[in-house]
Request: fold
Amino acid sequence: MHKHQHTASAKLAAPIRVMAVASCFAIASCGAAQSAPTPAAAHFPVSITGPGGATVTIAQKPHRIVSLSPTATEMLFAIGAGAQVAAVDDQSNYPSSAPRTKLSGFQPNIEAIAGYSPDLVVAAEDTGGLVHGLQALNLPILIEPAAKNLDDSYLEIKQLGVATGHGAEAESVVAGMRSQVGAFVASVSRPARQLRVYHELDNTYYSVTSATFIGQVYKLLGLSNIADSATAATPDYPQLSAEYIVAANPDLIVLADTKCCQQDLSTVAARPGWGAITAVKSGQVIGVDDDVASRWGPRIIEFMRAIAAHVRQLEKKAA
Reply:
């Protein structure tokens, strides 16, 4: 099963939810590298080259954008293109002002999408013949796949800026993100013994390695990811065992399953044997918004800020 976007939903069973996370990020490995757009391009037509070398030409500044990607939705509003968005998919829950509909990016309905008379469609991946179907209707579609690192995220923000006539605003958003990331990285002291982190995707112990977008954030902050040593079966989203996690003894546990699975310090501490884990004993078990931790847009800064703050606390205790 594949799903274009990981979302926090209590309706999804844990294994399905993790597969959704994996697909939304793993697609980046299928060629997320894209050509850099012309900075601050405000004149149309504009052409943008996406994954695989396909070029999308947008004849005029779009005013009826349909976003089938929660991350793209967040990016569009962040760069000031929100007023041009006519409809977003059923998983686009941020910002709250986004015109949410029943459209699906997982199982796109070409007729339903066309019903919104879009002059630009943005999606995270080409599923269900989406690109072919829209091209047959002469509707431009821009695929912005899941990022594998921050540079990919920055590039997608800039591309959406060019595509919507908000190139300067997009450049400003990226500059701000770069500055904050640099500040977070500089704020941690990197002790002699690397602090260990366990990132939990759901309560069946699926996790992320440093090969993923979110894993890169931990790596930038100098953390040692316990999942990196458990990648024999899968290099990006391995399912760990409770015994493995207890033995790895992480200093920090990050719960990205607070919405889907209602996990917190108390539920983790109640797991058999987990009370002996350093992170549990010291209370360094933090819950994060499932959506923020699974998307690759501007809100990754919020996630990184929270993690950096806890890393600094741990470093002070270790000093």
Summary: The chain has eleven helices and ten strands. Residues 77 and 95 are 8 Å apart (CA to CA). The first helix runs from residue 14 to 26. Confidence is low (pLDDT under 50) at residues 1-41.
